[in-house]
Amino acid sequence: MERARTASPDALRLSAWLPYRLFIVAARIARPLETFYGERFGLSQAAWRILAIIAERTGASASEIGQACALDPFAVSRGIGQLVERGFARRATARSDRRFAAVSITARGRAAFDEIASLGRVIEADLLASLSSAEREVIDGMLRKLEGESARIESAGWRALQERAGR
Amino acid sequence: MERARTASPDALRLSAWLPYRLFIVAARIARPLETFYGERFGLSQAAWRILAIIAERTGASASEIGQACALDPFAVSRGIGQLVERGFARRATARSDRRFAAVSITARGRAAFDEIASLGRVIEADLLASLSSAEREVIDGMLRKLEGESARIESAGWRALQERAGR
DNA sequence: GTCATATACTTGCATATTGCAATTAATTGC
DNA sequence: GCAATTAATTGCAATATGCAAGTATATGAC
Predict the structure, then answer these.
(1) Which of A118, A127, B118, B153 is most buried by a 10 A CB count?
(2) What tens digit of pLDDT does each residue of B30-70 get?
(3) Which residues of B touch A157 (CB under 8 A)?
């Protein structure tokens, strides 16, 4: 009688698989922050990201925002709607080309952003503090490479992966 | 007349904020893989994660699974349901304590897992190949620290963050 | 000029996903 | 034996998401 089968040594183990590990860290961090801005300001994750973009670059268009925070046009439109509803942003049309929106942050929006960002900075500081100075030195470059490589993987799509998976 | 306001130098910039950068990498990688197992096998992200867990540890209970892949009991139950529906897993009750489920992988489930995992391994290899050997050497330890620190941040909750945000 | 085409964004609606209360089933403590 | 606890599931309401269609503006052909 055979015992419960255990995976072969080179099999993919979720807890050791790099993308899953990145995902877990990102998800754990996002949770408390999301709870905060959700309860305190009634914002969705999309709205928070948009707020962060217009805090940095007020007057951005919807497509610029989508580009900057990886949201599709529908999500951007709804996120802006949520911000406007709560008095955190204003919608206007761009002067040059009136098809474009010009989304600007209000004083209340900036106050909310500052409050959320201050928690965000604590989180980042905690994460960095847990690393050695050598690790802190390489993390930026490493993330830059991972950002580039992941963009390539995404744009190549799963068919490209499958061809190279050799099976 | 004042120009569009630009954020102060120490303000949080989304694109440079560590948690957001981790999230972006994880999200970009997840997308093509998710499309693959969604189209090919009709699996949700939760079901794929559960499949990976039972591939490694067949006969796991729902709570073990939830623990191992960061899903709440509802999501686990639904994910198992999806796997069973597609013939990738079997539900049984544990012999010792019959409140517990014992979820085992089927041959078809293992075949699907192997197919998905082979793409997963290509992704991981690509990511690692984009790094220098020095970076590859530190990444494991670094992730371990980030996993630990993010777990602390999550369990402490947003109130703890706010107290330390000093505002 | 004007008419077809393209672009930017928004809205409505059908569908999926999620969150949570309530339920079932089994076990444990007293 | 029976209240309390635990594991898992189900039903349903709330929410989010995907996408077709709509509005408004701009551009290019002629």
Answers:
(1) B153
(2) 999 999 999 999 999 999 999 999 999 999 999 999 999 99
(3) 32, 35
pLDDT level of residue B167 (50, 70, 90 thresholds): low
Q: What is the DSSP string of B32-74?
A: HHHHHHHHHH---HHHHHHHHHHHHBTTB-HHHHHHHHT--HH
pLDDT tens digit string along A109-118? 999 999 999 9
CATH code, domain with A55: 1.10.10.10
Closest to B135 in 3D by CA, of A18, A94, A29: A18
Domains: count for chain B: 2
SS3 B84: helix
Is residue B11 assigned to a domain?
Answer: no
User: What is the domain extent for residue B104?
Assistant: 41-130
Of B149 and A166, which is predicted with more confidence? B149
Cβ separation of B165 and A29 shorter than 8 Å? no
- Predicted model pTM: 0.92
Q: Which one of B39, B132, B150, B159 makes the best mutation probe of the A interface by having the most chain A beta carbons within 10 Å?
A: B150
From the list A36, A59, A164, which residue is nearest B122 (CB)? Answer: A164
B50 plus B126 within the same structural domain: yes
Q: Is residue B10 assigned to a domain?
A: no
Q: What angle do CA B97, B44, A18 make, to 5 degrees?
A: 90
- Dihedral of CA A7/B86/B80/B124: which sign? positive
Classify strands A101-105 and A89-93 as parallel, antiparallel or unpaired: antiparallel
